Amino acid sequence: MTTAANLSKFDLNKRILSVVIFTFFAYLSIGLPLAVLPQLIHEQLEFSSFVAGGVISVQYLATLLIRPKAGQWADTLGARQVVLMGLGCCAASGLCSLLAILFLSTPVLSLTLLILGRLFLGTGESLTSTGSTLWGMNLVDRRETSRVISWNGVATFSAMALGAPLGVMLGSYFSIYGFAVVTLLIGIFGFILAYRKPTIRVKVDTKIAFLKVASKVWIFGVGLALGTVGFGVISTFITLYFAEKHWANAAFALSIFSIGFVFIRLLLGQVIPKFGGIKVSLFSFAVEALGLFLIWGSDHIAFVYLGAFLVGAGFSLVFPSLGVEAVKQVEVENRGSALGVYNSFLDIALMFIGPLAGLLIPLIGMQHLYGVAGLIVLSAVLLMGFLLYKSKRVAP
Q1: Which whole-number Å values give the CA distances from 202 to 184, 227, 332, 333, 378, in the listed order?
Q2: What do you get for the CA distance between the two ends of the chain, in Å?
Q3: Are 29 and 124 in contact (CB under 8 A)?
Q4: 109, pLDDT greater than 90
Q5: Over the stretch 332-351, which tens digit does the pLDDT of each residue have?
Q6: Alpha helix locations (H) across the chain?
Q7: Which residue from 355, 325, 99 is spatially nearest to 222, judged by alpha carbons?
Q8: How far apart are CA 169 and CA 46, in angstroms?
Q9: Within a 13 Å sphere around the CA of 182, how many CA atoms are in the beta-carbon half?
């Protein structure tokens, strides 16, 4: 019988992808309405752009609030059960969106249903991504943790990149109902697929308190939050930066970022077990900071594209490398809780980067925002240097 420890690389990746696909389904559900909802709320329901932005942000709030619980439930109920709950929430989000469109003639009711749908979607994101990651870890040897987290990241970003244009295409071919119906169908299909898979349970002997888990992994979460700044300012403000410079093709900069991210994740994902998460993240932060400084210091579009690629390439391995270090701090039965706490720092960073950067831009200008972001990411390099020095001091 083939055990998790002696699987071939092909079989190992196949086993991981069989459950990481549920993360893809969840993030495809998130990407589908991104380009559709703001226009629906602002133009058809005639609410302000502030309300439209607030409805979109409700999802991130739900994700942040449920993330720690998602990890705890994955530990206690099992990863498969949590994935089923998450996909059920994604399907409920599609149903709420469909009902909201049916009640467009009653704007307040329609908006309420859209908000409810966003709450379901944020909850579904937390449950599905956390459950899928832990499920993948339970299917392979513990030394392959970084491989599971890496594939989970590829599923996340590829689904997000595909979701938004797919949502627009569905709207053009099937009217505004398109994204809602497909979101509902994705949730149902994913639920059926996950339900048919056998339960993989890890023997649970002891549980440690949430605060104790947080005390063990918070430093890696801080590093993740600092590294997320580069991703945040690229994804949120690069189009405005291009408009300020009177450059075209801002979307290409986002594509270049995504190419750098996925390329490095696929090419170098296995350097983490070889060199360790702290060393890999230190180098990754340095590359990301270099990309941000290149965008800041350049007035030529080609160098901005290069900078976007370096930011994507640098940020690519930050999440899995620090995630590996985070789950090392706890026993197997507490890995779900550790992942939940660790992921929360990403959610917090994404929630605050936009508003804080928006307040900073009038004071320092759009271009200098990328210089400030570079300095913040550079502080993550110093943090990793400190952790590396500390680990060498305590090593036998």
Answers
A1: 31, 32, 8, 7, 39
A2: 37
A3: yes
A4: yes
A5: 777 777 887 888 888 788 77
A6: 9-31, 37-39, 49-77, 79-102, 107-139, 145-174, 177-195, 210-245, 250-268, 271-275, 277-297, 301-316, 318-328, 335-364, 366-394
A7: 325
A8: 23
A9: 24
| Residue at token pair 């995504």 | 258
Here the tokens at position 267 are 């090419």
Q: How far apart, in whole angstroms, are the C-alpha atoms of residue 94 and residue 189?
A: 13
Q: How far apart are CA 113 and CA 167, in angstroms?
A: 19
16-25, 149-158, 180-189, 376-385, range with the lowest pLDDT? 149-158
Inter-residue contact 180 to 101 (CB < 8 Å)? yes
Q: Crossing angle for the helix pair 107-139 and 9-31, nearest 10 degrees?
A: 170
pLDDT digits (tens, 9 = 90+) for 154-185: 888 778 767 767 877 887 787 788 889 999 99
Sequence ranges of the domains in the chain: 4-195, 210-394
Q: What is the residue whose two structure tokens read 């690069």?
A: 238
Q: Domain spanning 210-394: which superfamily?
A: MFS general substrate transporter like domains (1.20.1250.20)
Examine domains 4-195 and 210-394 and report if their fold is the same. yes
d(CA 264, CA 95): 37
- In single-letter form, the type of residue at position 189 comes to F
Taken as a whole, the chain contains a residue count of 396
Place of tokens 């305590």: 394
Q: What is the pTM of this model?
A: 0.74
Q: What are the residues whose beta carbons fall under 8 Å from the beta carbon of 331, sequence distance 6 or more?
A: 206, 208
pLDDT digits (tens, 9 = 90+) for 72-86: 888 888 889 999 999
Look up residue 132 and give its two tokens: 């899928």
Q: Which CATH superfamily is domain 4-195 in?
A: MFS general substrate transporter like domains (1.20.1250.20)
